[in-house]
Amino acid sequence: MSRVCNKAPNLPDGSVAEQALYQRVDGPIATGSAHFMRAGSELHLMHSDLELNDVRQAALRVRCAAAAVQAGLVEYRTSHRAAQELGFYPVHDERLRAAGGGSAPVRETLGTARDADLVQLDRAAIEAIALRYEEGGDEAAFGHFVTALSAFSADLDGFAASADEAGPADWQRVAWQLLTAFDRIRIYGQALAVINILGMTPGAVAVVGAGNGRSDRI
Q1: Do the beta carbons of residue 32 and residue 79 sit within 8 Å?
Q2: Is the CB of residue 66 less than 8 Å from the CB of residue 160?
Q3: Closest by alpha carbon to 38, among 61, 9, 4?
């Protein structure tokens, strides 16, 4: 079971059926997240290769990253489909509402997590995520993640197919674009993980905020 990306690591008050439901949904998410972060590692190493003028290795890194994102998408889509078919989302949304005293504690959780350096979000980003939960719950929030990652995968595949022939100007532009897009999706996914773990445990957010002072150092 994932320690950082699953929706609920501990459900002591849940029924056996609910525990099994979470396991069915969490398993693919954990595997998908492992593939996703490997893709990020390849993209960062791509920059290292480019600094050393090893374009051939950089092109290989892009293809490896593209394959890892594709593998991650398979797992994320499997989880999303299982959650829809098994009726997971209403169960999870109700748990979030119960933990928040009637409404999902998205703004409070993300605001405190941001102050504790658990996630990098500005107020506008937090508000956008909160509204997504209010309009469609966890299904809409996770569905947005899958859609964004699918678009990123298509862009990555497109460049990977011609990376061997890319010129210096292409690398200078695309290399930064790929990392920027990856980080944007990673931060969003990280925010969902924070909500689904800390937001599920009443009092956990306050503990995190009290136990970690925010650092302004770079």
Answers
A1: yes
A2: yes
A3: 61
Q: Whole-angstrom Cα distance, residue 114 to residue 128?
A: 15
- Backbone phi, psi, residue 14, to 5°: -85, 155
Entry pTM:
0.89
Residue partners of 187: CB distance under 8 A and separation at least 6:
119, 120, 121, 125
Q: Taking the mean position of all CA atoms in its chain, how far away is CA 142? A: 9
Q: In this predicted model, what pLDDT tens digit does every residue of 11-31 receive, in sequence order?
A: 555 576 788 899 999 999 999
36 and 189 in contact (C-beta within 8 Å)?
yes
State the CB neighbour count (10 A cutoff) for residue 17: 8
What single letter denotes the amino acid at residue 30?
A
Residues 31 and 9: beta-carbon distance below 8 Å: no
CA distance 149 to 185: 7
Residue partners of 200: CB distance under 8 A and separation at least 6: 7, 8, 95, 96, 99
CB 127 within 8 A of CB 139: no
Angstrom distance (rounded) from CA 178 to CA 64: 13
**Residue in this structure with the two tokens 């299982």, named with its chain if needed:** 82
Cα separation values, 152 from 49, 72, 155, 162, 201, Å: 22, 12, 5, 16, 32
What would the pLDDT profile of 162-194 be if each residue is shown by its tens digit?
999 999 999 999 999 999 999 999 999 999 999
Q: Check: CB of residue 192 under 8 Å from CB of residue 4.
A: no
Q: Which helix (H) or strand (E) holds 39?
A: helix 16-51
